[in-house]
Amino acid sequence: MIDYWLLAFDPMAADIANQVPLTTEQALALLLERARPITGNDTVALADALGRVLDKPVISAIDQPGWDHSAMDGYALRAAHLATGAPLPISQRIPAGSVGEPLAPGTAARIFTGAPIPDGADTVVIQEDCEADGERVSLIESARGKIRAGANVRRRGEDITAGQTVLDAGVLLGPQHLGLAASVGAAELQVRRRLRVAVFASGDELVMPGSPLGPGQIYNSNRFMLIALLRQLGCELIDLGIVADERQATIDALARGAEQADLVLASGGVSVGEEDHVRPAVEQLGRLDLWRVAMRPGKPLAFGHIGDTPFIGSPGNPVSLFVTFCLFARPFIRRTQGVAGDLAPRGQLLPAGFSLERPVKRRDYRRARIAHGPDGQPSIQVFPSTSSAAITSLTWAEGLVDLPAGCPIAEGQLLTFLPFSELLA
Known about the structure:
Strand order of the largest sheet: 7-4-6-5-9-8
Low-confidence stretches: 1-14
CATH class of the largest domain: Alpha Beta
Number of domains: 4
Shape: elongated
CATH superfamily of the largest domain: MoaB/Mog-like domain
CATH topology of the largest domain: Molybdenum Cofactor Biosythetic Enzyme, Chain A
CATH architecture of the largest domain: 3-Layer(aba) Sandwich
Structural class: alpha+beta
Mean pLDDT: 92
Helix content: 10-25%
Radius of gyration: 30 Å
Number of strands: 26
Number of helices: 9
Strand content: 25-35%
């Protein structure tokens, strides 16, 4: 199926400056469609693979479990011997890590979780259902007639069989994936190399923390937030620092970044003011595919290429930077890292704990958190200020609430809440 909206906004067919703002879904689809996974890989020890993207599938060479074993502490026996209700002699003791003898007929084996089931046994009765004196064991009254053959026995290969692919390429490796890889004996994993990202911030007003502020100056909070966001995604950073509000300085920074990195990210300078030089600089060096998104905050979002190197530019206000990074840069980076699957954040529908009589003009991603009323029911609360410069809203919030354009919001109305756990993963 042809994506006609992509054709409609192709920079070869239309002036990017006159581009109709895309919806957030269209903008994300455009970025993901044009993301190209990096090539190259590293072989790393299993303990060092957390947060990396798997490049080569993990195939198990063993069955898991490797033998029939007990799922509980108890007594291994033949279920048929329970019918008489008579006590059974305890013929052996089998702790985990050891292998018992074949079960003597008419006896039971004291067995512990993980220990192999001895030949001749087909059932494990948990110790709580038993009475034992060290020599003989019998069922307690309440358990009689309730034990089924095969109870509490984990069969060989019931979880994993030899030759089975247990982890596919493109998986973002979390603790659970490392545990699974270890369970089949993998000591090393082949992962994608780290994505190299060049970053800079535009603005003559920016000063590094620790320096005194002059008239009209502010501290460069965007640098530290952006670098932290990228490091959290496992990227390798190339810091190009603060770039002056000059056309040539912007061109030079973009060219250096494109030469050294797989992706260039910039904050500030992407609007249409006389001191905003990023858009024309990118167009001079390459092409701009996207410039505006019908959303707030972050309408002037820039995406394009400098040669073959992709570029993403966000507004300079810290909230706009954070929101556009979460909604667009993060999924683009994950796709470029080789992560497979759906990368859009998953929201949850919750009732609004506020109302808006005047509809928002553009789709609005307000900073929000979940509150619980006296009845324990959750509702979405929004930060009092809508300013994209209110960086305190990001530490107050637990996520973003998606407000549709053109609709008043009534208290209790169901809205989509996007938790930071989805937006930063």
